[in-house]
Design goal:
By secondary structure, this protein is of the alpha+beta class. Helix content is 34%, strand content 22%. The termini are far apart. The structure holds flavin-adenine dinucleotide (FAD) and magnesium ion.
Length: 352
């Protein structure tokens, strides 16, 4: 076949045009890890060689949208619309809310109400997530306890509505929504053919793919006695989320007593047992989030029972593993933590 000089010139010009327009287009630049405030925390995402501006924007937009829908701190959020209509009328909501709330109710049932998304009135009373916590009186606690009951939440999937039976009830998805957001970030990344990414939503971590070919990510578990210090445990993970719930995350102290943010719906007080933290490793960050809070509330023995029961539902691929750290610096793990090459980095702790 004969090719004319003009044809070659045009092809070459087109190539140059494409080359320079791609090189000049900032959206094709690969950006280093990006950080934004979302979901009430610092969210850090690293997409490595896949990190275009568009993809970071897309993922962060999704996180902000989830916050707009699920935050109790945003008056117009869907969650607050449900809360404001408690005892009055059902409220039409997005598929996101129906899905996350259904999952929250699943964990509420599995834990017989130890994990309860209607914890809102107690969270508001204790005010622990704000700058200044408040130590309520027993009367104040008794007054709101009847409003904390997941069995009074009615989801109508056909009409996409949610109804809270009693006036004054308040949903709070703070123990599960960050996990959902991390899963959504991963879903979008995967949709754009990203092969590896690190997603850290305020300690709710997703190590997606592997670090390099056949090399897992290495993640650390913080010292629950001094969460700013170096990690005390190292784990090799691939395609897994790691989520920790602990007494050190958010708390206030009064008269030498620490009041933290994970509340026992039966007593109305912060959960008191010998645990400092529980960590869950799971390929679903939402399951990891819900399970870290649930196992922390239930304690070690009932927590392991819960895990076995939930794992039977999740199936082998999503199987969750747990690490409990006690106030005596003892570390207990479920057998399946063996798959993560756990390495103790601090000899003052003992693996039991
Ligand atoms: P987790 O153990 O996962 O959850 C503890 C949280 O769950 C508590 O703070 C409480 O909200 C709730 N909870 C307590 N007891 C129970 C129980 N028995 N059952 C079920 N849930 C329980 N923080 C801010 O400071 N400002 C904000 O504007 C803000 N906005 C947020 C918006 C969204 C959509 C989300 C998901 C979180 C937001 N946060 C905000 C953070 C939030 O308030 C919690 O502190 C955070 O989600 C707790 O996560 P965690 O992993 O530390 O603890
Ligand atoms: Mg949680």
């Amino acid at each position: 076949m004969k090719t004319s000089k003009t044809g070659i010139f045009l092809t070459f010009s087109l190539f140059l045009l494409l080359f320079f327009s791609c090189a000049k287009n900032p959206s094709k630049e690969i950006l280093k890890a990006q950080t934004e405030l979302a979901l009430g925390t610092v969210c850090n995402i690293n997409l490595f060689e896949y990190g275009t501006e568009e993809l970071y924007d897309l993922i962060f937009k999704r996180l902000h949208d989830i916050e707009l829908s699920m935050s109790i701190n945003i008056e117009s959020s869907e969650i607050n619309r449900i809360n404001n209509a408690a005892g009055k009328n059902p409220v039409q909501v997005s598929p996101d809310i129906i899905f996350v709330l259904s999952q929250a109710l699943y964990y509420a049932e599995k834990t017989e109400g130890a994990f309860d998304p209607t914890i809102g009135p107690l969270v508001k009373l204790w005010n622990i997530n704000s700058e200044s916590g408040y130590l309520p009186t027993q009367e104040e606690i008794d007054a709101v306890l009847p409003l904390v009951d997941y069995r009074l939440v009615h989801i109508d999937e056909k009409n996409s509505t949610v109804f809270l039976e009693k006036e004054g009830m308040r949903l709070d998805l703070g123990a599960i929504a960050k996990g959902y957001a991390a899963d959504e970030a991963v879903r979008i990344a995967a949709q754009y053919k990203v092969k590896r990414a690190l997603i850290d939503l305020g300690g709710n971590i997703y190590a997606y793919g592997s670090k390099e070919k056949d090399t897992p990510w290495r993640i650390g578990i913080k010292d629950p006695f001094s969460p700013l210090s170096t990690p005390i445990i190292r784990l090799d993970v691939e395609n897994k989320s790691s989520v920790t719930s602990g007494v050190y995350e958010r708390f206030f102290e009064q008269d030498g007593v620490r009041y933290h943010h994970i509340l026992d719906p039966k007593t109305g007080y912060p959960v008191q047992n010998n645990l400092m933290s529980t960590t869950i490793l799971c390929s679903s960050s939402m399951a990891a989030d819900a399970l870290s809070t649930s196992t922390f509330i239930l304690g070690r023995e009932s927590g392991i029972e819960l895990l076995e029961s939930v794992n039977a539902d999740l199936g082998n691929e999503q199987e969750a593993a747990t690490i409990f750290i006690t106030d005596e610096k003892d570390i207990f793990t479920t057998k399946n933590v063996g798959a993560y090459n756990m390495l103790l980095l601090d000899e003052s702790f003992t693996v039991r």
